[in-house]
Specification:
CATH architecture: Alpha-Beta Barrel
Largest sheet: 8 strands, parallel, barrel
Strand order of the largest sheet: 1-2-3-4-5-6-7-8
Low-confidence stretches: none
Number of helices: 11
Number of domains: 1
Distance between the termini: 18 Å
CATH topology: TIM Barrel
Mean pLDDT: 95
Radius of gyration: 17 Å
Helix content: 40-55%
Length: 248
């Protein structure tokens, strides 16, 4: 049996953010996605927000045509469901969305929103789309995700990464312990375990050591790093960091 490999999904949202800051067509998130695939990314992630602040509908249609799986991040709304069913991406990740947030601030309310979410999950699964829920690393959220019948969850790593960035080792350790326990619970509940939000080379290397992790989705850091070293080099270094974590 070969060594375990964690898939890397590269999120191209913020290539579109830079494009939209000035208008026009550059930089092109589809070109960035193509480069990321060439550099070793296993898939592309993009979030089509209600306000279209970065990715727009045409981006999603073009990304769907690339030779790698597309993970369509979306709010659980009828408009987004209709678009997803037309595009038929490989996967949809249901995420919380607020107009005023700069970025996704936490996990989906899978406990309070269970009744609302079940029809979205069922419809996407019927159409052959893999469904994941972006959730907090709590046992209660994972149990609710299993009840919603989503086959995959993506653990929100933001609180852990934020503590690391602020140099708060005790809080970082506590948050990582939550992630470790959540990954273990995913295995027991039969949920495929992904993770993402705020990851950089070091944190991706660390979380890749958790044996239950199957996929990491990373975007903002890679696009920021690409300003200095180029996108190809940024993605290649991330692929190498994840592989180091798996071997650790």
């Amino acid at each position: 049996m070969g060594a375990r490999k964690i898939r890397l999904g590269v999120n191209v949202d913020h290539v579109a953010t830079l494009r939209n800051a000035r208008g026009g067509g550059v930089p092109d998130p589809v070109r960035a996605a193509t480069m990321a695939i060439g550099a070793g990314a296993d898939g592309i992630t993009a979030h089509l927000r209600e306000d279209r602040r970065h990715i727009v509908d045409e981006d999603m249609r073009a990304l769907r045509e690339l030779p790698a799986p597309l993970n369509f991040e979306m709010a659980a709304t009828e408009q987004m469901l209709d678009i997803a069913l037309r595009i038929k991406p490989h996967a949809c990740c249901l995420v919380p969305e607020k107009r005023t947030e700069r970025t996704t601030e936490g996990g989906l309310d899978v406990i309070g929103g269970k009744k609302h979410l079940i029809p979205f999950v069922d419809e996407l699964l019927r159409e052959g789309v893999r469904v994941s829920l972006f959730v907090e690393p709590s046992i209660e959220a994972l149990e609710a995700s299993a009840e919603i019948r989503a086959p995959v969850v993506e653990l929100h790593t933001g609180a852990w990464c934020h503590a690391l960035a602020l140099g708060e080792p005790d809080r970082a350790q506590a948050e990582f312990s939550r992630l470790r326990a959540a990954a273990d619970a995913c295995e027991k509940l039969g949920l495929e375990c992904h993770a993402g939000h705020g990851l950089d080379f070091d944190s991706a290397r660390t979380i890749a050591a958790l044996p239950q992790i199957v996929e990491l989705n990373i975007g903002h850091f890679l696009v920021g790093e690409a300003v200095f070293v180029g996108l190809e080099a940024s993605v290649k270094q991330m692929v190498a960091a994840i592989a180091e974590g798996v071997r650790a």
